[in-house]
Design goal:
Elements lengths: L1 E5 L2 E5 L12 H10 L1 H5 L12 E7 L5 E7 L3 E6 L4 E7 L4 E6 L7 E5 L3 E5 L4 E6 L4 E7 L4 E6 L3 E6 L4 E7 L5 E6 L6 E5 L3 E6 L4 E7 H5 L12 E7 L3 E6 L3 E6 L7 E4 L8 E5 L4 E5 L4 E5 L5 E5 L5 E6 L5 E6 L5 E4 L12 H11 L9 E5 H7 L10 E4 L2 E5 H11 L3 H19 L12 H20 L30 H6 L3 H16 L1 H9 L6 H13 L1 H29 L19 H11 L2 H11 L2 E5 L5 E5 L5 H32 L6
Helix pairs in contact: 8-10
Pfam family, one: Beta-prop_NOL10_N
Organism: Trichechus manatus latirostris (Florida manatee)
Protein name: Nucleolar protein 10
Length: about 675
């Protein structure tokens, strides 16, 4: 059983692990369980819960006892009994199933929509009846009050088949070219269909008239979304009487209130893949939306992500077991996915032992694989001097960095900075000494970091105490005494930089108050002067205070302009200093060493080579074909044949010419020697 956690939500995968072949005997299966640890530790919740090749759709019956799934190859439907935790029956079909619907509480009445336009009805004993619709179907829904089946597909018409009369009724004519999905509201019976043009048409089955039209394609386009094609409707689901969720082919989910044509919320999956299915989770007000890559669970009121689930293989369909935290997925793999999330709800009645199992796992957590590894970025590797290990087995690439063995990391860090432990030890000792000092009786003392901010907070606290003394006002906690903010006055990294551009522009009027506080700080640093100042009376006349408040309001714009002028002057001065430094610098000639055997021509060759390397492969091939060093021709088979001549350097060319002359001289010598030998054999004298 694999356990993953995202946003502190535990997800238990009950379908991971090795699956044993069906043709193995029980004896061999027991032998494998003894030998293989993975086979022994796996949890087979439902026996043979898989398809031969691929699973396309999966649903749960209304009574919760049966799980039905369709897949290939060969096309088939399998029914699993949850009370027996095993396969109940399997039926092979003539063609692949697009979707199916369970009309009864159990498996006794099922309707299948095939990809060859056939509709197949199955009863408890097996196949019952087969009929055909005029166009290829993509989805259908069942209207219980009238016993009508509504089929949508590659047509503008919505076909109606009445199961009580056993005949087709007049179709509903929509404005769309094609319809992808449909759904019927279980509360008031409203029928909705999603079109290729990105619209949702709502029909009243009683009057067979259209009562509403939603343009979801226009509403799905937001400022953050990047859309390259027209969004079409790929998923549709009602919840209650007034809520409807719509999924598009570009990866957006729109939440509507039927009383408004504007969406309440637009959620983007950011994958650009069509939404496969949408489900509502009532207990936590969640929406489960799935594309072929990921299942996202998010709050339907705020849109905040609750958690997400990303299987190894592509997703075809998702089914949420009612009133529980169990989830089934149909994937592009033989094995169907089973996931259990205790946060969503308890385990179903037929597998209640999962609650005890998960509680034991939470009580005894095992160390994960990542505890033995350290995640480092490329900058960390540069600081440690380990960039040469990139690509080696010591570093495993992951996202924007690498995983490396924690033991290797500690060894290298100790070699790079051998005194790191001593510094860490001294910091810890200093912190403990300061903690013991804090327990003693302290005088009114300002912290070492952010003294002006602390003084400001003390003044505000004194004013609040005066106001609460006069009026009964509820006092709020002070930041200085709050443990959550104590690091701000202890760690030097949190020191406010008053010389920064942001501080000077955002706090133009703080300068006057800061001057007063600086005076107080000087007085606090000089205790003798501070005692003399304490004897003097404090306070100002009321007229002065009122004039100061009015001046602060008037001078705000002037202070901002003044700070901006000062910033521009500082930038200008820095620019002039840089220009002067550049003028004073004297450029020295640079010398380059030429290797032995090479001849220097000019720097143009290097520039031409650099330009040639910046060109594309197609441009370089055209240039070489023009120079005659490359030839491209068609072969008899239909492929391309490419021949080229290698460029030789000047040294190689001279060496080849010398070898050629040497070979010619040796040939002349051989000819003259053979000529002399023949003359000697014939008895001719030598000259």
């Amino acid at each position: 059983m694999q356990v993953s956690s995202l946003n502190e939500v535990k997800i238990y995968s009950l379908s991971c692990g090795k699956s044993l072949p069906e043709w193995l005997s029980d004896r061999k299966k027991r032998a494998l369980q003894k030998k293989d640890v993975d086979v022994r530790r796996r949890i087979e919740l439902i026996q043979d819960f898989e398809m031969p090749t691929v699973c396309t759709t999966i649903k749960v019956s209304k009574d919760g006892q049966y799980i039905l799934a369709t897949g290939t190859y060969k096309p088939r439907v399998r029914c699993y009994d949850t009370y027996q935790l095993s396969l109940k029956f399997e039926r092979c079909l003539d063609s692949e199933v697009v979707t199916f619907e369970i009309l009864s509480d159990d498996y006794s009445k099922i309707v299948f929509l095939h990809n060859d336009r056939y509709i197949e009805f199955h009863s408890q004993q097996g196949f019952y009846y087969k009929t055909r619709i005029p166009k290829f179907g993509r989805d259908f829904s069942y209207h219980y009050p009238s016993c009508d089946l509504y089929f949508v597909g590659a047509s503008s018409e919505v076909y109606r088949l009445n199961l009580e009369q056993g005949r087709y009724l007049n179709p509903l004519q929509t404005d769309a070219a094609e319809n992808n999905v449909c759904d019927i509201n279980s509360v008031h019976g409203l029928f909705a269909t999603g079109t290729v043009e990105g619209r949702v048409e709502c029909w009243d089955p009683r009057t067979r008239n259209r009562v509403g039209l939603l343009d979801c394609a226009l509403s799905s386009v937001t400022a953050d979304s990047e859309i390259n094609s027209l969004p079409t409707i790929s998923a549709l689901k009602f919840n209650g009487a007034l809520t409807m969720a719509v999924g598009t082919s570009t990866g957006q989910v729109l939440l509507y209130d039927l009383r408004s044509d504007k969406p309440l919320l637009v959620k983007d999956h950011h994958y650009g893949l069509p939404i496969k299915s949408v489900h509502f989770q009532e207990s936590l007000d969640l929406i489960l939306s799935a594309d072929s890559r990921i299942i996202k669970m998010w709050n339907k009121n705020s849109g905040k992500i609750f958690t997400s689930l990303e299987p190894e293989h592509d997703i075809n369909d998702v089914c949420l077991y009612p009133n529980s935290g169990m989830l089934f997925t149909a994937n592009e793999t033989p094995k169907m996915g089973i996931y259990y999330l205790p946060v969503l709800g308890p385990a179903p009645r037929w597998c209640s032992f999962l609650d005890n199992l998960t509680e034991e796992l939470e009580e005894n957590p095992e160390s994960t694989v990542y505890d033995d590894y350290k995640f480092v970025t490329k900058k960390d590797l540069e600081n440690l001097g380990l960039t040469h290990l990139i690509g080696s087995p010591f570093l495993r690439a992951y996202m924007h960095g690498f995983f490396m063995d924690i033991r290797l990391y500690h060894k290298v860090k100790l070699m790079v900075n051998p005194f790191a432990y001593e510094e860490y030890r001294k910091d810890k000792i200093r912190q403990k000494i300061e903690e013991t000092r804090a327990q003693r009786v302290q005088l009114k003392k300002l912290p070492k970091v952010n003294k002006e901010l602390a003084l400001k907070l003390i003044e505000e606290e004194e004013e609040k105490q005066k106001s609460t003394w006069k009026k009964k006002v509820k006092s709020l906690p002070n930041i200085l005494t709050d443990d959550r903010f104590k690091v701000m006055f202890e760690n030097p990294d949190f020191q406010v930089d008053e010389e920064s551009e942001e501080f000077r522009l955002l706090n133009p009027l703080v300068s006057k108050m800061s001057e007063k506080r600086k005076k107080k700080l000087r007085l606090l640093n000089q205790p003798e002067l501070h005692e003399q100042e304490e004897e003097e009376p404090e306070g100002k006349p009321s007229d002065a205070e009122s004039s100061e408040s009015s001046d602060d309001e008037k001078d705000w714009v002037e202070e901002v302009r003044k700070q901006r002028r000062l910033l521009h002057q500082e930038e200008r001065m820095k620019r002039q200093e840089r220009i002067k430094e550049d003028q004073q610098t004297v450029l020295k000639p640079q010398f380059y060493e030429i290797k032995a055997g090479e001849e220097f021509r000019s720097f143009k060759d290097s520039t031409t080579k650099q330009k040639l390397m910046n060109k594309t492969l197609e441009d370089r091939l055209k240039l070489e074909a023009k120079n005659g060093t490359l030839n491209v021709s068609d072969t008899a088979v239909g492929s391309k044949q490419l021949t080229f001549t290698l460029k030789r350097s000047e040294q190689q060319r001279k060496q080849q010419e010398a070898e050629k002359l040497h070979r010619q001289e040796r040939k002349k010598l051989r000819r003259s020697a053979s000529h002399l030998k023949s003359r000697h054999k014939r008895g001719w004298p030598f000259h």
